[in-house]
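Appendix C. Worked example: MoaB/Mog domain-containing protein
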Amino acid sequence: MFSRLNLLARHLSRPLPNYLHNAAGLTGAVPRASMAQEHGNKRMINTAACLIIGDEVLGGKTVDTNSAYLAKFCFALGIALQRVEVIADDEGEIIEAARRMSARYDFVVTSGGIGPTHDDITYQSIARGFGLPLVLHEGALERMRRLSKPRPGQEGFSWEVDSPARRAKMRMVELPYDTKLPDEDQVIFTAEDLWVPVNVVNGNIHILPGIPRLFERMLNGLKPRLLPRLTDPEGKGVHRVLFSTPMPESEVTGYLTELAAKVKDRGVNVGSYPRWGKSRNTVTLVGREKDFMESLVPEVEENVKGRRIQVEGEDDSEGSDKDT
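Step 2, the predicted output written as structure tokens:
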């Protein structure tokens, strides 16, 4: 314990880097960092946004799958995912997007930019954007020391000896932190065997890693904390009914336009999706009133000359392309 405290004392005694200072010089006012306090970190969740951060995604080196996973996660819970953005590892870009999304959406998830290298700047950027300091989180550091294992080539690594590798590791637990708020509302550990925390800033920004297996597991670990804050507290979410039709879009558009107008007040959205190179296209109903949507099935099947399906493409056969 004594050595750990010494380590923390040495680290915290270092001069603060510039990005710890208030970002008053940036264009636009810093959003109130008291949003989380004002809402008690328990604001209801209706809408969501996703911010994918990484030059490697924009450069084509890595394919983003996390936004797709978040979309399915939100759909299952009845949360309306309304925006997905991919931006570079650029402080200004991160600050602008994080502020804007935090102000507009109830549940914001970021992915990427929290590793040990020089271009992992998500924590420092969001800290600056909301006028918060970066704080070495002792609980996260203790978990990292206990749970992380040396990577190949780091067999001689020691937590007790200052080194570039140790400093790089410690960057990953220097978190944007509001000392006026409870720790448990800002640093969330989603599994006993994971040291990486979900860092919550401004009450609604949830900072997650970009590694898909970690992103997915940590997102699922957040679910128990999200359920009480949903408009649908039982987490029943929304329902999707799929129809397969041999008709091209141009032939069903009249009926679907009439149907959309008829069911709009019941919160049901009607969709039509051409499937290039396939013999059948897809029509969908999406909404919360399951019984009402089920009552529409015979009518839709008759008017699109098709049938209800469970998975798109389950009745594919060879055929000519449909028009779009």
